[in-house]
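Appendix B. Chain record.
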Amino acid sequence: MLTRSLLFLLLALALPASAQTLDKIQKSGTLTLGYVDNAAPFAYLDANKEPQGYSIDLCRAVADSIGAQLKRPNLKTRWVKLTLQNRIDAVRKGQVDIECGTATWTLGRQRLVDFSLITFVDGGSVLTRLQDEGMRRLSDFDQKRIAVIGGTTTEKALREGLARALVQTQVVLVKAREEGLDMLRQGQVDGFASDRTTLIGIVSRRASGDALRLLDADFSIEQYALMLPRGDTDFRLAVNRGLARLYRSGDVQKVYDRWLGPLGPPSVLLSATYFIQSLSE
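Structure tokens predicted for this chain:
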């Protein structure tokens, strides 16, 4: 028979390590936020080495909300630079409290981390050279080469899309968006696959004068959300309170206009996403 002290110890060990995120933030006075660079207009470092972007602004609004909820108006934020490869582990291990970027919410990932309310709806696309006139749909890439960042939801969706199109395309795995873009420019691949808005962002930031274009139709839907520690319901509620208030007040439109306005107004799907998630207190 288990003694009472041993039973309490086992129960404590069974609790998720992240279950006290708000207590940790309250005691330290600091919220630790992770981001992945080179994901403009969602997350990138500016000339002053400060994180900027759509997702960054959403996280700053969440930080202000959490500070108000904890009655810590001077709550500090600490930014940690991550990679696409280590961002999930960083959240799992408590190295960051929130990952602020372009993470797609999937059921597989939810076995490892939790997610906030949806922050953006994007689609997977392929960037090609304008000179390659015949490259407008996935079916046009038969016997061609497409680069994509390995281990991402885009890689999985791309392979599934190619299988549906019944085309034999060589998928070339890269580690970063800049690597894939450089391979496309140098003619080492015929296309580079990633999220549509991110592709537009990295091309516009580099402003190199390349003649590039996107496919006529996306091959997937990507629902972005902030990644959070799994099992910490109180912290997830605190984060969602901040996002819901942003959606409810309409202030999210200012964030959108600042970073995505040049691409046109929010899509009908994204506008509906904001409206549906305008949860009341």
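Further analysis of this model is presented in Appendix C.
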